[in-house]
Amino acid sequence: MFGFITFIKGMVAAILTVLQLFFGIFFGDFTAPTKPLQEDCKLNFAVISDVHMTEEKARADMLRFGLQDMQEFESPLDALILSGDITDHGEREEWENVANAFADYTPAKNIILAQGNHDTWTGDDDYALSREHFFEFNEKIAGREIDNVYYSTKVNGYTFIVLGSEADHTSQTVSDEQVAWLAEEMEKASQDGLPIFVINHWPINESHGLPETWGDAEPMPDDGGIGDKSAEVEKILKSYNNVFYITGHIHSGFTKPGQEDVYGYLSVESDGSFHSVNLPQYMYLTLRGRIANGTGFTFEVYEDKVEIRARSFSAGVWYTDYDWSFDLV
Ligand SMILES: [Fe+2]
User: Fold this and answer.
1) What's the gap in Å between 268 CA and the centre of ligand 1?
2) What's the whole-number average pLDDT of the chain?
3) Is the pLDDT of residue 6 over 70?
């Protein structure tokens, strides 16, 4: 296993080095060092979404390519976040395929897992079992004991709030308790005066080109979004400064400013100092925007700004055209 993946990645690295020499001027520094742009970086983490693991070896290998890339970062990542649809159906065998891949690598110092709708589709629509699997494999993969699908954690002093769904529907089921909990956690986190990172598989309704980008022929307004509680969640998130809301679910590829008229969405949409970041899916080719798989973002957090950098973790190259930079307020 190691031999195969290491060999392929070595071949790719050699080819890329030659390509960079001749074409770097056109495509940016796609072989730039795998370390923060500046030395005063306070937090450096990676995010991928929609891994959709099955029992297939090919899917496990695809994940392993990314994990090995992260493991080989010159500056170790503080965290790796998976923002939902980690598995295709929340089955034990699928979770084991994920856990076995993680057991062979150290992609980051901390692992943070969020649930997606596919992770709740266990067995014969057995939500209770999917929840147990989520808890069990959180402990196995991330070493984190949780007793709810929503939880919060801190990395380098920065708060990460992870939301979840409380039923096995395509849109998110958010209880009043979860909404109240989110409000409390946001208030608590805001006391630190640092940016807050909220991880949720589901984007806010009608963001990132929804509902059209969800793909239904006759889309309803809530399609592809949080659903009923979207406005309540959005209001809480936008009550604070420097909030980065990180999602997946839509399976769209990267886009950059100027492409919103072509594709109908941007990968990062801002409202004041609230930034909604929608990830491409990792496992399949993206449906629109930059066609690719194996992609995600890294976040570099500084005293006064956050740099979001697009990367193909499977190929081990930066997609510098799709980078973002935000000053903190
Ligand atoms: Fe998905």
Assistant:
1) 18
2) 94
3) yes
246 CA distance to ligand 1 middle (Å)? 14
Query: Could you tell me the distance, in angstroms and rounded to a whole number, from the CA of residue 149 to the centre of ligand 1?
Result: 17
**42 shares a domain with 27:** no
HSE value, Cβ hemisphere, 13 Å, CA-based, for 38: 13
Q: Same domain for 40 and 107? A: yes
Q: Using one digit for the tens of pLDDT, what is the confidence trace for 137-165?
A: 999 999 999 999 999 999 999 999 999 99
Ligand 1 centroid to Cα of residue 21, in Å, is 36
Ligand 1 centre distance from Cα of residue 143 (Å): 24
How far, in Å, CA of 145 to CA of 202, rounded?
23
Start-end of H helices in 222-328: 230-237, 260-263
- Name the residue range of residue 203's domain: 36-327
Residue 310 CA to residue 305 CA, distance in Å, equals 16
- Res. 5 pLDDT band, cuts 50 70 90: confident
Distance 50 CA to ligand 1 centre (A): 5
- pTM value is 0.93
| Number of domains composing the chain | 2
